[in-house]
Structures are given as C-alpha cells and as structure tokens.
Task: structure prediction
Amino acid sequence: MSATADPRPAAALPADQLPAAARPADQRPADQLPADPRRATRSHTREDVLTAVGAAAAALATAWLLYEEVFGFSGTIGFVVFAYVAFMAFYAGLTALTRPWAVVVDRLVTTLVVAAPTLIGLALAAMVLTTAAKGLSALVHPNFYTSDMSGVRPTDPYTQGGILHAIVGTLIEVAISVSISLPLGVTTAVYMSEIGGRGARAVRTMVEAMTALPSIVAGLFIYSVMIIRFHMQPSGLAASLALSVMGLPIMARAADVVLRVVPGGLREASYALGAGRWQTVWRVVLPTARPGLATALILGIARMVGETSPLLLTSGASNFLNTNPTHDAMSSLPLYVFTAIKSGEPTFETRGYAAATVLLVLVLILFLLARLVAKQRSAR
Amino acid sequence: MSASTVAVLEAPEEPAGEPVPRRIVARDSLQDRVFAHGVRSVAFVVFLIVGSIGLFLGLQSRPTLQHYGFHFFIESRWLPSQDVVGIKAVLVGTLEVATVALLMAFPLAFLTALFITDWAPAWMRPALIRIVDLMAAVPSIVFGLWVLFYVQPHAAEVAHWLSKHAGWLPFFRVHTDVDYPIWNQSPGYASYAGSAFIAAIAVALMIFPMATSVMREVFGEAPAGEKEAAIALGATRWAMVRTVVIPFGRSGVVGGTMLALGRALGETISVLLIINQAFEVKVRVLESGTATISALIATDYAEATPAQLSALLTCGFVLFLMTLLVNTLAARIVRRSRSGSGTEL
Result:
C-alpha cells in the first residue's frame, strides 16, 4: 500500500528525508549515527483529507450544475441523494488514481458507514426539534402544566387549559402497573436464574414467548376480559392492568438476563462461607446485580410510559383531572397526543405536539435516572 | 448460623472393616425452604397469568374459525355488518409494512452498528451507544407524529418519482396518472399519502435501535486478536471487518433483524396515525391505503359485537402467533453463552 501511496520517485527525495531502510548504508558506528527523527503516527495523511475534500467539492459542483439544469430534477431529497452518489463516484475515481483497488473499496464502504449514523442522527435531531418547535406556543404558558381541559374548547387560546390530567394519569397508571409487574417480574427472574430446574425452564420458555405479545393484543385481552366480561368500566386501573400484562414478561426477561451474568464464583464463595440460598440471593446476587437490574427495569418502565395502544382500548378518554384509578376514565399523555392529532383542529394539534414534548422529556428523565443508577457501579 | 444449610454427616456405624462412604444429607434451613417455595409459587402464578393470555386468545378464536372456516384466511374484505370477515388483506398489509420497514432499517442498523464498533473513535463510542439506547425509549407515537407531518410530504415526492420512473415494477406502481404535475395533486398527494411505504418509515425508525443494539453487541465481541492480525497482514479496515467482524457476528445480525421484525409486526399507533385504512390485497406499497392487524384492532374494538370481538381476538391471535414464531427463531439464533455461572472471578 505505502509503496503506491507516494507516486513520487524515491530518488527525488533528499537522502535525509528517506525512510531509514532506504538510506544508503552509513559506515559510522551506531552510537555516532544521527538519531532517527521521531515520526508522528496518524491514521490520515494530508492526501487522504485532500482527496475527500476534493471529491466533496466536485460532487457539490456537479450536482449544482447538472441536477436542475441538465436532468431537470427537483426536490431537496433528490439533490442530496444525487450529490452523495456523485461524491462516491468522484471519491472512488480520485482514490483509484493512486491507490490499489482494496483501498478504493475500503473508502467507498467508509462513506456508507459514516452516512448511515449521520442520517439517523439528523432524523432524531429533526424529530425532537420540530416536535418541540411546533408545541412551543402551548409549552410557554404555565397553565399548560397546571390545569386540565375541562370546559376548554379545542379552539380556545393556549392561556386556557392544559395537560395536568394527562400527566397525572400517566404517572398513576405507570405507578400501578410498575408496582404489579416489577415485584412479580424480579421474583420470577430470581426463580429462573437462582432456583433453576425443569420448572424454571418451563417458566423461562413461557416468559420469553410472551415478550412477543404485541401491546395492542395485551390491550385487547384486558378489554375483552375485564371490560366486556366483568363489566369493569374503562378506567386507569384497567389501563394499568393492560400495561402490566405487557410489561411483566419484559421485566422478568430483562431481570433474568442481568441476574444470569452475575459471576458464579460469587455464589459459590457465598455458599462456601456457609450462607443459605436466601442469604446468597439477598446479600450477594441482588446487590451485585443492582445497577444492571435498575437500568434494565427503568428502561422497561420508559417503554411502558410511551405505550399508547393498550391505553387506547382500556383507559377511556377524559379531559378532566381524575386521580381515582378505579372510577371513570383517566387520560394519559400518549392518549392525549393521539386524540389531539386525530382531532384535526390546529390549536388542539399544537397542544398535542406540546404534550408529545412533555412525554419526550419524561422519557429522557427516566433514561438519565437509569444512567445515574448504572454509574454507581464504577463509583463503588 | 442457624439459617445456613445444615449438612448432616452420618458416621459409619462399624469402625472396623471395609471403609463405607459417608452419606451426605443436605437439608435446607426453614428460611431457605420458605424462600424457595415462595419464589416458586410466585413464578408459577406468573406462569399461569402469562399462559392464560395465550390460552384465552386461542379459545376465543374458536367460534370465529368454526363460523367462517378456512374462508377467514382467504377473504380480504372486513364487513362485519354483512357477515363477511376475512384476514387476508390485513395479514398481507401487516407483512408489507413490516417488510418495507425492515428493508429500510436493516442497512441503516447494520452500518450504524459497524460504525459504532469499528469506525467511531473511542471517545465517541459510549455516547453513540447511549443515544441508540435513548432512541429505543422514544415513544412510538412521537415517531408517528413526526413522520405524519414532516416526512410525509417529502416521502410522497420520493414515492411519486419512483412510481414515475420505476412504475413498471409491480410494487412501485401507483394507480394514478403519474405524469400529472405533482403540485396539481390534491393536498398531500392524495394518491401517495397514507401508504404502507410511509407507515414503514415510522416503523423503521422504531425498530432501528433494537436491531442496532443487538448487532453492535455481537460485533463488539469479535476477538481483538484476530482483528489485529488482519490489520497486521495489511488488510484495510473494511477487509478486516469483512473477514473477521461480520462472520463472527452473523448470528447476531440475523437474530437482531428478526427481533426487530417481531416488533415491526406488532407496531400499532404510528401505523394507525399514518395509514388510510383500506382492505385490499395489493403489492403497490407506494399507493395510498393499506391495513394492518394491529390498526384494525385499534379502530374496530369499540363498536364490536361479541361475535366481532371474537373475530378481532382471532386476528390478535394470528398476529401473536406470527410474532411468537419470529421471536422464538430469533432467540434461538441469537442465544449465546450469556450465563455467568462459568465466569472466573
């Protein structure tokens, strides 16, 4: 590679700039030789950078010249795609002038590998920014966080009404479903990884199968059992049950994965010191797995917070503050966003975007919490 | 300690003669027995709850299957009021949306996973992993919202271009006049909006983080020694990745993709927001109108009579069987020795 990298003939270089091996043999003893200058190692040469910059400039110029004038295309996406393809062509051509084919392929793959995360990153940033920007006119009013929508028409100005009922509803529903599914899930995981045996394998198979349960089917299950068969009214409790049914296998599986990576040597050491099974689990396994367990569970909770489809079937929609999960409909943030967008009313849609921003912030807070708990591992 | 396991060592009764091996009887303490039984019974209850869902869905779909028979699977219309109900259109629609989403998400996830493990500088790696994890937690309704209002106009342009220049391919065809100027089409390109293609964009964004993190994990476990050996032999970075990293992570690539497919099949709310529901079997994914099982359940549950509810539950059961199949295969492929029981301290 390096032989073809430098097209200049080696003889054209002054002798002291030649690589050590190519220098004519020096007759002086070793300790009198001038020390080799320290060479800086880096992965990019100036030529690499210039090739990339040159190809980019050529691609932009070509696209600017040909895209609309000659080919008669239009549209931003088309321009970007055209310029990108042109860039790849120029980059490959320029590289092929001086480098072997393997390097050309490597560089083409590199352009693809860099483009994919860039595209996703741009999409993610655009999503967050446009959602927040569209909801901004509702987000800036403090009443958006402190009042509900009762007696507020969708067309009313943003100084009236808010999403307090949806925030409170989400918090209550998620709290109930977490308090059902988290203890059950962790206990099941302890059974699967610490007790073991044939029963544990059966439970693990079942739990893994049920992580495949689509959330809408979990909602439909609770709807047809609780609401149709047992005549429970659509309420926060029904929604919490649907979320628990969906979340229980997810929690159990996440906890199981974390518990299984606890080193077996720790358990054996505990038994060797005379501890029983309960003491080993309570004093050794769970404390060791605590940060990982917390991270996995908080991520599971974050998924529950954003889940919409089970709530659509079970909680009913309300526009007033309801703190009683067993009685009357209870709204929640994802459901509020959904109804707002489906309404087609511009001001109500803006409120929907604002609620979506609040939902994103809530998920972000949960995520940062998970990072914080996970970080304690290194602190200890 | 009274709580610990008590090992009763029974001494041989005859001191002389043949050495008899001592019998070791390990008996759990009361605390341990309570613990084991308690945990076992909780797990059993969970087993029952979780298993009853599958059983319930199966039982509830029996009347529907008895009533409609095999016609349930080959009828594409969904007209409960006329007693014509079939799953064909929604089944095909579900598979179409999931397949197109996978076609978009797979290359992106594959390349991003490679970027994270082998191209990104070391300082950037943890941040990228964290962003992908965070993206997995973004509610799907937010993706749906964004695609509906901001991506759809651009995506419709792309769909129009594709149908105009590649319309001879059956899945790029759109039944409309493609030469009609697009600024003259009714608002939002009526023939191009709400298609399976646009719904698939939202689903692709949703399943991308899952596929990426599974692939990233297996790529990251490629043996460093072999990677360095490849570099030392003069391989370029891509040659190293092609010969060491990708063969090593092949099972993770397949498994991660299938896990993502399982999520894509069940995705409801972003699809429901975007599509124009139409019960029609077609391969024209760029054309407006499609239907998926989950979206059908979400729109029809409220006005359903008991018989219709049973039909919806049957749909749910079919969907569950599909995701179950895909997930089981994926788990089998991706399963590696994750257990730490053999880990040295």
The radius of gyration of chain A is 31 Å. The first helix of chain A runs from residue 2 to 5. Confidence is low (pLDDT under 50) at residues 1-18 of chain A.
